[in-house]
From TrEMBL:
Gene Ontology MF terms: ATP binding
Name of this protein: ABC transporter ATP-binding protein
Signal sequence region: none
Keyword annotations of the record: ATP-binding, Nucleotide-binding, Transport
Superkingdom of the source species: Bacteria
Length: 373
């Protein structure tokens, strides 16, 4: 299967509006599960529609393998039906008057696949997706999750080189979404299909993707594996968008004479030296440890005196709300908290768990840190 390459792709709807997608360079490799992640209006669905051919870019090139399918400089445009792509929309778009088996082999009949081969491929994909027993039913007789499986089966039956999914799980309830995530993961592993998946749900992206492209206001913010996106966010937008509860941000740029910002600045300076441009420090809630005794804090860790203001059980874990000199900090633990509400405590964080950002929100990497002479 081919790679998909976007080179300087832009989309502007005119009328003096800003670019919906701006100078996007992105490569989706063969067999990859790529998630386009971001808030509403960030350009992820527009990007997917340009790959499919439903939207025409206003700049740049799109390649599928060695073939250019869209190019403004070269005046090339290949229509959607000739790109060998499968597209599954947020709405299932099933034919209500056709049975499930006729919905599944609809694309095969359009391609005039011989009847014997059509029946074999239809049976195989329906068996793999667990919908064979519904073959004689109509879409209105199925649940939302079952209809979603039918929509996926219809696309997989024609064996597209690339499967494009535009928020296909957003209409399902929590349990069905969990089941369909597992189903999509299995489909990707079993069929080895290149999948491009649009979502605003960070957990869908984190659990499904082999690569995540985080977008904001039409621009690519970071491309990486789920672990890279979570553990080493490229900037504050990525750090704050991915994570629940959200990352704790300590602003260092504010003019403050004391408190958490001052303590954090003193610790970072003592640990790494004077950092030019340092504007804020981010700490994931899972990295914040809480103890009632200061002697339990490891040597070299950042620590601060705090007061426990809330403990929120979530089933398998607890969210601990802390007040640190008037600043609210959250900690997440899988163990029952040792402290009680209204009790004094200490929080501590290992230096490797500190995310440092400059005044513009860009990540300061250790190798890029400049020590004052």
């Amino acid at each position: 299967m081919p790679n998909i390459t976007l080179e300087g792709v832009q989309k502007n709807y005119g009328g003096g509006s800003a670019n919906a997608v701006a100078n996007l360079d992105l490569e989706i490799r063969d067999g990859e599960f790529m998630c386009l992640l971001g808030p509403s209006g960030c350009g992820k669905t527009t990007t997917l529609r340009m790959i499919s051919g439903l939207e025409h870019p206003t700049g740049g090139r799109i390649r599928i393998g060695d073939r250019v399918v869209d190019s403004i400089p070269d005046s090339i445009y290949v229509p959607p039906e000739k790109r060998d792509l499968g597209l599954v929309f947020q709405s299932y778009a099933l034919w209500p008057h056709l049975t499930i088996e006729n919905n599944v082999d609809f694309g095969l009949r359009l391609r005039k696949v011989p009847r014997a081969e059509r029946e074999q491929r239809r049976a195989e994909v329906m068996d793999k997706l667990g919908i064979a027993k519904y073959r004689k039913r109509y879409p209105s007789e199925l649940s939302g999750g079952q209809q979603q499986r039918v929509a996926l089966a219809r696309m997989l039956a024609v064996n597209p080189e690339v499967l494009l999914l535009d928020e296909p799980l957003s209409n399902l309830d929590a349990r069905l979404r969990l089941e369909m995530r597992a189903e999509l993961k299995r489909i990707h592993e079993e069929f080895n299909t290149t999948i491009v998946f649009v979502t605003h749900d960070q957990w869908e992206a984190m659990t499904l993707a082999t690569q995540i492209a985080v977008m904001s206001e039409g621009e690519l913010q970071q491309l990486g594996t789920p672990d890279e996106i979570y553990e080493t966010p490229a900037n504050r937008f990525v750090a704050e968008f991915v994570g629940n509860p959200p990352i704790n941000i300590i602003e260092l740029a504010r003019e403050e004479s004391g408190g958490l910002a001052l303590w954090a600045m003193q610790y970072v300076t003592s640990r790494f030296g004077e950092l030019h441009g340092l504007g804020s420090v981010g700490v994931r809630p899972e990295a914040v440890q809480v103890t009632g005794a200061p002697e339990n804090v490891p040597d070299g860790a950042f620590k601060a005196r705090a007061r426990v203001t809330g403990i929120l059980p979530t089933g398998g874990s607890w969210i601990v709300e802390l007040d640190v000199a008037g600043r609210k900090v959250f900690s997440v633990t899988s163990l029952a908290p040792v402290c009680r509400v209204d009790q004094d405590a200490y929080l501590w964080v290992q230096p490797s768990d500190l995310n440092l950002f400059d005044h513009d929100g860009a990540r300061l990497q250790p190798e890029r840190r400049l020590l004052a002479v």
